[in-house]
Amino acid sequence: MFWWVLFILSAVVWADGGLDIRGSVQGGGGYFLLQGGGNTNHSYGSQILWRIQVVNTDTEYGQFDALVDINQWGGVLTNTTSGLLFWSSGRESMFSIDVRKFLVRIKPSWGDIFIGRQLVRWGEGVVFSPLDFFSTLERSEGSFSRRGVDAVRVRFSVGENGFGEALGLLSSDWTNSSLAARGGIEVGEWYFTGAAFWNTGKNEWKGGISFKGDLGLTWYGEFLSHFSTSTNGNFLHGMVGCDYSLDRWILRCEYTFNTAMLSNLSLVEKMTHPLYPFFSHHYAMLQVSFLPTVLDAFSLVGMWDFDYPDTDFQDKPQRYSFSYTRNLYQNVVFSGWLQYEQGKSLWDEDFSSLSVFLSVKVMY
Amino acid sequence: MMKEKMGICLLFFSSLFFSLTGEEILRKVDSNLNFTTAVLTMRMEIYLPNQPVRVKRLKSWTEGSARSYVEFLNKEDKHTRYLKLGKQMWVYDAEENNTFLISGHLLKQGMMGSDISYEDALEADEIYEKYTIKLDQEETYEGRACYVVILTAKVKEVSYYQRKMWVDKEYFVPLREERYASSGKLLKVLESGDLKFFDGKAYATRSVVSDKLKAGTKTVVIIEDASFDVPLQKDIFTRRYLER
After folding, report:
1. Which of 201-220 (A) contact B at CB < 8 A?
2. CA nearest A246 in B: which residue?
3. Which of A7, B168, B169, B219 is the most buried (most CB within 10 A)?
4. What is the pLDDT of residues B124-146, one digit of tens each?
């Protein structure tokens, strides 16, 4: 029903103006080494991604915005395939279609109403973001991108910079829906938001704040409190981060903590837990980017899990990734990344992995 | 003889009382650039050593010196928009639906890979508070008679310790500016030309920005279309419009 209403609204908005179609085609392949459970696997993977973004050009009364990924996966990457539709297209080959965004924005004079699959970013953190209730981080990619949710969102402005918004995650079972609200305001040169979330089915509450401002370094943070009637459902979750730029270098640090006491969670419970994929109490991230020319960008990211007090540092879970991008032509970008990770899998088994992936993206 | 002496005295006193100070020259520059609103369509050409030129097209809506909104028109950057409100720069990535505030030292980075930093774009009316302004000399630059004005920082919170500007004497348009670090090292050069007249006021429609720390690079900004003092949509300088 939700999608039918959305399609009808989309058609009405399309009729109001033309469509602007743009996107990119990205192709690449890589090598993956995985060690765990006494086994060592060497494998290859490939991906051809055709990303299409469609927006309507007349935005006076409403706007349509869709972002669709059409993927051809090869080798070991067929195991990571997800999306709205996917099917095998040969031996070790999968084809998938993933609708990342598909929404209509209606613009009454007092604000905006967003209906459909949308990316809802409420946090300030790049990697650790407790306030991002809805758009979870995709870790499998070389970059940090987030996924959309199917929702109805209402938003209104307060002055130039302030705003208030409310969001509902619809469910066929209304008593199992989730509701959330957020407001933002500028105080001096600092920006603050406050957000609250209620999952009616689980009777779970969350409330938190975020801030961002400049004190020599740029500082940002998010603090969130979880309340739930379920066992061990009450805990604090927070992060602080800062960034600094010096000549051609950009440094970013983030630290996150939580006070949750988790044990004996099933795989499904882990995958749907608000802390996923960071279940330990303390993590830190350091990103160093170097931009020697306007064409080249290098980035090194390290992430560390500071739990496991009886384990030496070198054996604690940690992850390092190094990436390089080069703008080859006006609309062509080469990118490559190398990643090493060691830690515990969702099945609590020790593992380590090494992967390298090279790709070329053409924007149209 | 007496007449000649009086003439010299008059000339001396008139030059004393009627010549412009450095600050007056810059105020005249501001007055020439004074508009309530401006809508500009621009072409940005980024030149790099041994590389084909990268071209970006953008459109900006400006009100006074404190508020502006920028959209990129070329397909590679079409999802990126900027909103400047006073000293704050908000950036919106329409593909990721992500709005973020650029602040602190990140403002020193080049906008969209150009030689123009966010800080350059944010610069407003603060030069009178932050710099001591002095008329250095008059000289001819590119065949035009110019005032040479030197700005020296009197506070620490500036991007450039010293700035040297060549201002056209007739039209009060800056034709060249050199920006220096406190060590005396030349950091950036801005050159303007192709003067065009809008409502009797002269504007440079071609500017070249060279970052002297990056060898062989320059960014050329060409104003393709301009209209001044036109009514703007009411909500254009809001986050709501940025995120539309």
Report:
1. 212-214, 216-218
2. B105
3. B219
4. 556 788 889 999 889 999 999 99
